[in-house]
Amino acid sequence: MTYKLKLSNFEGPLDLLLHLIKLNEVDIYDIPISTITDQYIAYLEMMKELDLDIASEFLVMAATLMEIKSRMLLPTQEGEEEQEEDPRFELIEQILEYRKYKDLASHLDEKASRERDIYQRDFRESADTETGEPMFDVSLFELLQAFKRVLEYATVEPFREITLEDVSIEEKMEELRKKLREKNNMLLDEIFEGGVKTKALLIATFLALLELIRLKEVAARQAKLFDEIRLFLLPKEGDSQVS
Questions:
Q1: With 0-12 CB in 10 A as exposed, 13-18 as middle and 19+ as buried, what is 68?
Q2: Are residues 65 and 100 in the same domain?
Q3: Residue 93 and residue 5 share a domain
């Protein structure tokens, strides 16, 4: 069975760019376009390998990045430096505007969450299990980054290679539900432990996780940026949340 998950249910190309800027710890006003473009394309290749349904906006942004990269590689004639506008200018403006929107949305979400806490108990599963500090939702691209590391430990079947068509995503989803019901929360790496770790099985498990996150059955959170990712089983709608 082929399984496709639309990326539009998660984040868009500007979210990926913001993720790469944070990952590389670079100045948003002086983006190393060659490095960011290469990493952006690498993420698209990984999404393609996962058979994710890549929205056209991601491909448009890839083309834009490649165009900017090629323009910046062109030799500059003497006297033209001051006259020519930085090829990255429009992209930087777009990223800054989008970041402003994201920060505002995040602020409103935090405000709504604080108001809910007046009437609801503070869930332990939303806090770091060791420090008790609050945890924050992670992006799709942070999940992809962590999964890329997991793939490095994939094994190969000695007799027959298992393909994604041989694996039921729905069964993997139910396996994850069962594990999380038993443990309440667990590290991302833990869901890939045990049994054979073929590439197809790892991918199927990851796709099952993305679907559970999309359905708001599971939340992926971390205490700080690029920290370890912990998964939480969310209460079903209608469940009592008041202590």
A1: buried
A2: yes
A3: yes
Are 25 and 103 contained in the same domain? Answer: yes
**For residues 186 and 198, is the Cβ–Cβ distance under 8 A?**
no
Q: How far, in Å, are 151, 170, 206, 225 from residue 1 at the CA level?
A: 21, 11, 16, 35
Count: domains in the chain = 2
Q: Along the chain (243 residues), what's the average pLDDT of each consecutive run of 10 residues?
A: 57 92 94 96 90 87 96 72 78 95 78 54 48 75 91 65 68 94 91 81 91 93 87 76 40
CA 192 centroid distance within chain? 17
Instruction: Look at residue 81 in the predicted model and tell me its pLDDT.
Output: 54
**pLDDT score for 95:** 96
The answer to whether residues 2 and 91 belong to one domain is yes
Phi, psi values for residue 2, rounded to 5°? -85, 135
Tokens (6 digits) for 8: 């539009």
- Identify whether 241 is part of a domain: no
Q: Is the pTM of this model over 0.90?
A: no
pLDDT confidence of residue 124? 40
Distance (Å, rounded) from C-alpha 190 to C-alpha 184? 13
Q: Which residues are within 8 A (CB) of 12 and not within 5 positions of it... i.e. 6 or more apart?
A: 55, 57, 58
Residues 158 and 226 in one domain: yes
Q: State which residues form the domain around 200.
A: 127-236
In a domain, 82, yes or no: no
Q: In the prediction, which pLDDT does 237 show?
A: 64
Closest CA to 7 of 40, 47, 53: 53
Please name the amino acid found at residue 110. E
Is residue 78 a part of any domain in this protein? no
